[in-house]
Amino acid sequence: MKKTFLVLACLASGCGDDSTEPEESMQPFELSFSAIASEAMVGCNSPMTVEGPEGPVRIGISDVRFYVSDVVAFDADGNALELDLDENPFQYRSDAGEVALVDLTDRSGDCAPETIDFAEGTERVNESVTGLVSGDVDRVSFVVGVPQPLMKAVVTDFTAEGAPSPLNEMHWSWALAHRHLVFNFSVQGPAGDGDGYVHVGSLECGGDGVRALTDRGECGRINSPRVDIEVGSSRAEIAVDLSTLLEGLDFVAPVYDPTTFELLGEGPGVECHSGLDTQPDCVNVFEALGIDTADGSAEASGNRTFVSR
Amino acid sequence: MSRRILCAACVATILGCGSEEEQTSPASAADVELRTLLGVPEHFQLPWIPSDNPPTAARIELGRHLFYDERLSGNQTQSCGSCHEQALAFADGKQRPQGSTGVLHPRNSQGLANAAYFTTLTWANDGLRTLEEQIRVPLLSDRPIELGLVDGVREEALARLEADPVTFARFEEAFPNAGGGVTLNKVILALSSFVRSMISGSSRFDRYVQGDTEALTPQERDGLVLFGGERFECFHCHGGILMSVSYRDANNPDPNPIFFNNGLYNVDGQGAYPESGQGLIELTGDPSDMGAFRPPSLRNIELTAPYMHDGSFETLRDVLEHYAAGGTNRTEGPHAGDGRLNPFKSNFVRGFNATEEELDSVEAFLRSLTDEEFVSDPRFSDPEEE
């Protein structure tokens, strides 16, 4: 398995036949992630305040998770380095691709299940993606999300074992896909209290007479953000700026009667489940992540949410 | 006599022609075995079954236990059986069900009879083609929460099952040599196998189809004629052995999904349904999918009230009057609007003139689809209540 990956990495980086030689020169590689709001670190026990149209809004962070894949490290000359990611419960590799899950939240503070109506966060936490790299890293690029071939392998897998960790999380059952990024939070502002749900995932994955994705390689709307940033070190620190992700939102969402499910009107909250037609909040969120709202493709240059720290 | 001939023609219209040809080919031993295992009656084709989940008696039995096991919800308060009661042909009698955390579901809970034969599962999702994929929804869904096995509590729930030696042994029997203990996929595979075995084909209508002309009363036979006729048009959406044209079987594994707008709402005069339930458009974003829902099976329809995707009709007569009017015209309330004029409405919902006696007959026919054997069969019952 490891060998297969090395060969694939070589093909991608054009490192030729000498891939086994530089073993000794491999050095630790780490992308460590944190959540920030305008430079300040935020998390389960560190809420953030953003400016809404009617005044400050307190955001209690409940759940921040996202997948990271297709990691490429570049040296100062722009050459792709050889990269050998670790395998552990948060990092999975197979012939269909490799993926890591970053989970910045446990179940303490605002992450306790009772703080929002639809809490789903896990106890386990993982703040970094680790491995070995063949040289000094100047720049990294990666995709936020489950690669489509891997998603296809997992979504269509009905073996007894099922999805391996970390692909056993963030499934999106109704959409027959995975979510790439989940950000759940409570909203407390001038207009009252509510919940916020930002779920970015692939859509249009349903099958044609057979199971989802058995008849094609990828979903109609992939919706995987891309990241490409200067880091200047093989131990890079990357921040997810949650205030940027929520920029421009009015913190007003539809409110439904909990017993009748009738639309009562609007109230405090954020709703984005990647449905651009029916969830106006998604337009801002997608824009902040550099996802093209027209077709679900993404450009790293448009991603303002993932930044070097 | 003329009535009997008419009825025979009617059955042919509803059930479709050409099936006799398929039935003449000699059944393989495997097919015979499968028919026995799933309890598929002779006048049904075999259901389409995905190759990665061949049913076994042990898998079906594990599925039955899991179906009624409240440990399989996040807070251990609900099982599949909470919203799918056998006595109600696996519907729940409520307008809309409440999930394990108390959240109301936007859609009515459907009966599960013959679920194996649907082209797509649930009210309005063109991607859910197999029971295995569908069952992930009530188990895992975070919005609305049904059983609530969300990421934060799922492993704990599976560990609960694994810690029980009796349950663990059932998993071992259903998945011999698989190893790995209790996994989510094993739960899904077993539940799918159990639901696939929920076959309802012993109603009086079935006996009539099989040649027992006395199985239906004269009134029910009149109703059958009207049901299959061009005036009422019921059979265009509710034809076939499933009583829904969203049908697939082993000989026809790849049909196109089918959804219709039946003129239930028109809140803006341009065809909109209430925001709480707009149908296929919620997934596809295609304006022409507004109000489009899969036609449900009418099997055991007497027991699965209330009706429609939002449970908004209490009685079968309400439903028949809706179709007779060619849609529902609401003159007041939050959903006021003339559904009869919904631009996305199916051409089959044209409305028709019918006497009360005729509506009585169709209603009587629909009640003949009740399968008493199915709703009392111990193969589908809660093992705790045996």
What is the mean predicted local confidence, pLDDT of chain B? 93
Which pair of chains forms the biggest interface, and how many residues does each contribute?
Answer: A-B, 47 and 49 residues
Total of helices of chain B: 15
Q: What Rg of chain B do the Cα atoms give? A: 21 Å
Quaternary arrangement of the chains shown? heterodimer
Strand composition percent of chain A = 35-45%
Q: Which residue ranges of chain A are poorly predicted, with pLDDT under 50 across at least 5 consecutive positions?
A: 1-19
What level of helicity do the residues of chain B show? Answer: 25-40%
Helix-strand string of chain B: HHHHHHHHHHHHHEEHH
Instruction: Please list the strands of the largest sheet of chain B in the order they lie side by side.
Output: 1-2
User: What is the 3D form of chain B?
Assistant: globular
Rg of chain A, Cα atoms, Å: 20 Å
Overall average residue pLDDT of chain A: 89
As a percent range, the share of helical residues of chain A equals: 10-25%
Largest β sheet strand count, sense and barrel closure of chain B: 2 strands, antiparallel
Which properties best describe this structure?
heterodimer, A: 309 residues, mainly beta, disordered N terminus, B: 2 strands, globular
